[in-house]
Fold this sequence. Notes:
alpha+beta; 14-stranded antiparallel sheet; 22 strands
Amino acid sequence: MHKQLILSAAVAAVLLGTQGAYAAVSADEAAKLKNTLTPLGAEKAANKDGSIPSWEGGQTKPLAGKKMGDIPLEIFAGEKPAFQVNAKNMAQYDALLSEGTKTLLQKYPESFRLDVYPTHRTAAAPQKVYDNVARNATRCKLKDGGYSIEGCIGGTPFPIPKEGVEVMWNYLMRVEAPSIEYRFKNIVGNADGTHTLATRNEISFQYPQYYDDATPESWSGEYAMFRFNTLEPPFKAGESLVIRDSVDQKNARQAWQYLVGQRRVRRAPTVSYDTPDFVASGANYFDEVQGFFGSLDRFQWKLVGKQELLIPYNNNGLIGAKLDDAIAKYHLNPDQVRWERHRVWVIEATVAPGKRHAVPKRRYYLDEDTWLIALVDGYDAEGKLWRTTQVTPFLVPSVPATLMKTATVFNLQAGTMSVIQALNGEDFKVVPRKQETFFTGDAVAAEGVR
């Protein structure tokens, strides 16, 4: 057994070593970011039939109407769906549907459908981000078999990707405001159609690579840090979790947890990968939060290619709905979810040699304009579709950026779902950045004993 594991690890090193062969692109290729490609690396032109328009700079101007903090809730007011996809006509749109979407249409034929609206390429970012991306294209490099990166700052690291792992790094380093605060609820959908509040929480997120003064030399490599406090239910109120994620695989995730009953902070090394997410009563795995959350090293990442797909998009209206109106019995309420046709990168993840994961194969679909995960399909050890995820992004012109928090994970075999970080009825604000000592176990401990 021991020899077998050593062999597997050796094979993995050889296979993953090839991922470092393609890193930064040439200056000539990077020049495409100023003409045929958008500044973040998407195809600028419309598709053949015009159903995906050309990118014209995205949405950078403020939007009128109701807001929830910094999120405008009324975009494209009065616009009607161009068409609907349901169980009866889904064959007509087969090429535009992921396997998970098809399965939901078949599983819930009376209630689940896609309202497909005209496509709006609203993705935008600050000019400083565009400038950084242009530099990243020729300086950002993979290392540690693709599970670490270096030479990047403040924007998409691989805008012209050659490998699947580069696309996933683009997601992990997606455009964000440097510091945000919001509240959210995690809802568990049971097999009988009832819903249970798992937790309600307040959270602070910080993205150091997007600090105004960040440089590749000064940046520590920590690309995301957060700290949250549970507000409900009463028996969990006061519990806290702190996480700091790094682009250096040797220090990929540091996590601390505060448990009220024990009145102490402890290291939480298992808050990652396929550990059941205790914030959501175990209804999803930790690395299913926000589509994918954490280190990439359990998988090999294959770049399948690019295709056109129907995906959730511009879902500010979903956030503006009351929670009971946003969630139907077995899925999100189709009346509230906006779907659009976009080009997506398709990435296939399979468990790396010598590694293990409860979901040994996944297929990720990432929007080309934003590098955000849109859909995920997860397969069991027998190759059967087991789980599917829908991510519902929203527009924040004040950054400007398209952001995403809520992800809905469906366990197709059990008939359950987990709505992770639902923002409905809460608040979301871009805020001044905090001292990084706020995101430490010591800071949580100091507050917890008061």
